[in-house]
């Protein structure tokens, strides 16, 4: 995997490296393998690199060999299952994004509630309630009436 590469336009290969992360489909730009597609660990050139690397064409040939021996009904079920899994993965990704958005909205609302609570506390500090003012006025009238 030494050299340079560029990410593929679709990038979805459906292969996972030993780290458990999806290994994106990329395209080699080396002199030895120009334009050859491969998939490798996302953590290449980092301390978390697991060493996973596979050329796309070799992967396809191996997969075809494995599939040739299977009955066509099994192959169809497998392909259907992969399609469903992809849809479920997409739905999960969309739901995760929605949860993030809702969490941000909730945090903003909690902040607004806190700000309104503080504002309300400030307004009520030192400001007598309407009942207190009314009681004071009645007491003053009674005192004036008595004297």
Automatic annotation (TrEMBL):
Gene Ontology MF, one: zinc ion binding
Report what the protein is called.
Answer: GRF-type domain-containing protein
Q: Which UniProt keywords apply?
A: Coiled coil, Membrane, Metal-binding, Transmembrane, Transmembrane helix, Zinc, Zinc-finger
Is the keyword Nuclease in the record? no
Q: Which organism is it from?
A: Rhododendron griersonianum
Q: Which residues cross the membrane?
A: 127-146
- Where does the record place the GRF-type domain? 17-59
InterPro entries annotated for this entry? Znf_GRF
């Amino acid at each position: 995997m030494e050299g340079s590469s560029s990410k593929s336009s679709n990038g979805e290969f459906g292969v996972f490296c030993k780290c458990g992360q999806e290994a994106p489909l990329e395209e080699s730009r080396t002199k030895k393998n120009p334009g050859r597609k491969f998939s490798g660990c996302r953590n290449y050139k980092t301390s978390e690199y697991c060493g996973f690397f596979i050329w796309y064409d070799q992967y396809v040939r191996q997969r075809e060999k494995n599939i040739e021996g299977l009955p066509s009904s099994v192959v169809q079920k497998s392909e259907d299952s992969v399609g469903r899994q992809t849809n479920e993965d997409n739905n999960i990704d969309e739901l995760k994004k929605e949860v993030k958005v809702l969490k941000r909205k909730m945090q903003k609302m909690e902040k607004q509630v806190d700000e309104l609570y503080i504002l309300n506390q400030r307004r009520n500090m030192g400001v007598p309630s309407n009942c207190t003012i009314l009681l004071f006025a009645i007491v003053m009238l009674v005192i004036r009436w008595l004297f």
